[in-house]
Design goal:
By secondary structure, the protein is mainly alpha-helical. The protein folds into three domains: about 90 residues, Fumarase C, Chain B, domain 1 (Orthogonal Bundle), CATH 1.10.275.10; about 220 residues, Fumarase C, Chain A, domain 2 (Up-down Bundle); about 100 residues, Ribonucleotide Reductase Protein R1, domain 1 (Orthogonal Bundle). α7 packs antiparallel against α8.
Length: about 475
């Protein structure tokens, strides 16, 4: 057992308790952050005269040597250590002897782990933002290529009004844009340095917390030492944001799964992102989309787990907080993989414009426009609504579309129908008439796409 404490104890910890308490098997991924934080802490100790320049140099060279050896697989992070901090400090002391024992001066594992987790999460926030930006680029490319790809818009999973593929994908652009905005907000709120808070009440050493915060790229030191060692708000916020990302991905996947079905045939997923059946040779399954949809619950679970862990904890640090890591790491990894695979699937997916347009034509998506046509002839909208409703019922019985009816048939429902109705309810005209900002009309979509281009140019990433 390699641990950093024990002087007050007269007997060894039970091996079962040690294993239950240890976190090395999952917090070893914080190795880089632990080295980075320790280098900054040592530089500050040296600058403040708390350790000598010679000791500071030995610590710096020792820490960099450990990092280099681990990265080049000359040194393995052993499972006999209690946590990643024990591994680094024990190995450092083995290499540089007493000077290594001075690294922990003015520092507690409480502010150390708070720093490591914050540094790690900060990078994962940036990574998620980069992946979302890449997805937005793919969505934008599809929008630009499909402003005239007509399709049915749905409400209640029933055909409602005609729209375009560009307009439909524009809705997802807005969703993922909001996800990036949430990440930016989280980054700004979390970017305060806990190092120097000690166990909970700071330290008697003359630490320069502003200096270490600057070295590590933080906005400033965290304001309250009790809060920053027991704060997991930033993780809860990040898991919440990741859950919303997954919800958006899941909604998108649900639509792709439907569109990929024989009943819709709106899209064809590339072979590289599909699988087959062990028994049915005709099958081509949308497994990537289904797995992304399924893994959404996994990320939701991580959020609920951490909320539940934190809900009854008194100030300041409690060992319960060790439970923040495994669920958070899993959620971060899951979202990273889902975003990467989904973006690849979307980039290689083929659309079927003719099938989409035919589906829009056969679903009475122009019924509202037929009512609007009558309104233009002086019919009150509520009356027009009733007339077209009866007209649709007639079409269903005849298995015909509205624009397939003769003018004589139309006039049996209202004699104000005239030959110009066919132009008014054509699919292209139905879409083009929707000129309000945010609508599917070509001019409105041109403006929306331009806004998307400007957004991506101005929001390159979290710095």
């Amino acid at each position: 057992m390699a641990q950093l404490w024990g002087g007050r104890f007269t007997k060894d910890t039970s091996e079962a308790v040690y294993d239950f308490n240890a976190s090395i098997k999952f917090d070893k991924r914080l190795f880089e952050q632990d080295i980075e934080g320790s280098l900054a802490h040592a530089a500050m100790l040296c600058r403040q005269g708390i350790i000598t320049a010679e000791e500071g140099k030995l610590i710096e060279e020792g820490l960099k040597g450990i990092r280099d050896d681990v990265e080049n697989k000359r040194l393995e992070i052993g499972m006999q250590y209690e946590d990643i901090h024990s591994f680094v400090e024990t190995e450092l002391t083995r290499r540089i002897l007493d000077a290594g024992k001075k690294l922990h001066t003015g520092r507690s594992r409480n502010d150390q782990v708070a720093l490591d987790m914050r540094l790690y999460t900060r990078e994962r926030v940036r990574e998620t933002d980069r992946l979302l930006k890449e997805l937005l680029k793919v969505i934008l490319d599809i929008m630009r290529e499909n402003t005239d790809t007509f399709m049915p818009g749905f409400t209640h999973l029933q055909k409602a009004q005609p729209t375009t593929l560009a307009h439909h994908f524009g809705a997802y652009f807005e969703m993922f844009k909001r996800d990036r905005q949430r990440l930016s907000d989280i980054y700004a709120r979390m970017n305060f340095c806990p190092l120097g808070a000690g166990a909970l009440a700071g330290t008697t050493y003359p630490l320069d917390r502003e200096y270490t915060a600057k070295l590590l790229g933080f906005t400033a030191p965290a304001a309250n030492s009790m809060d920053c060692v027991s704060d997991r708000d930033y993780l809860i916020e990040f898991l919440s944001a990741l859950s919303i990302v997954m919800m958006h991905l899941s909604r998108f996947c649900e639509e792709i799964i439907l569109w990929n079905s024989n009943e819709y045939r709106f899209v064809e997923i590339d072979d590289a992102y599909s699988t087959g059946s062990s028994i049915m040779p005709q099958k081509k399954n949308p497994d990537v989309a289904e797995l992304v949809r399924g893994k959404t619950g996994r990320v939701y679970g991580a959020l609920m787990s951490l909320l539940t862990t934190m809900k009854g904890l008194p100030l300041a640090y409690n060992k319960d907080m060790q439970e923040d890591k495994e669920v958070s790491f899993d959620a971060m990894d899951t979202v990273r993989d889902c975003l990467s695979l989904f973006t690849g699937m979307l980039r290689t997916m083929k659309f079927c414009p003719q099938r989409m347009e035919q589906s829009a034509l056969c679903g009475f998506t122009n019924a509202t426009d037929a009512a609007d046509y009558l309104v233009g002839k002086g019919v009150p909208f509520r009356d027009a609504h009733g007339i077209v409703g009866r007209l649709v019922l007639y079409c269903i019985e005849k298995d015909m579309a509205i624009d397939e009816l003769s003018l004589e048939e139309l006039k049996t429902f209202d004699d104000r129908f005239d030959v110009d109705v066919y132009q008014a309810i054509s699919l292209k005209n139905c879409v083009e008439k929707r000129v309000t900002a945010g609508g599917p009309g070509s001019e409105a979509m041109k403006a929306e796409i331009e806004q998307c281009i400007v957004y991506l140019e101005q929001n390159k990433g979290i710095e």
